[in-house]
Specification:
By secondary structure, this protein is mostly helical. It has one domain. 44% of the residues lie in helices and 0% in strands. It comes from Homo sapiens.
Length: 66
């Protein structure tokens, strides 16, 4: 995220396309925790989904950044 903030604050960022498409995001720390748990827990099998607690469109995400 840090790398994305500067361009947005300089007015160079914005939604991609119509902005109506949903933008999947997750914090790197949360993703690392999911992967660590999956590797260390013997009872975890199959597909794991790592997602944010709420969804945002690309336009909403871009507006939040700046």
């Amino acid at each position: 995220m840090g790398h994305m903030l500067l361009p947005f604050r300089l007015g160079l960022g914005g939604p991609i396309g119509s902005g109506h498409q949903f933008f999947p995001w997750i914090h790197i720390g949360d993703l690392a925790g999911i992967l660590t748990h999956a590797l260390e827990a013997n009872h975890v099998h199959g597909v794991l989904n790592g997602v944010a607690p709420s969804s945002a469109t690309n336009a909403e995400f871009a507006q939040t950044l700046g």
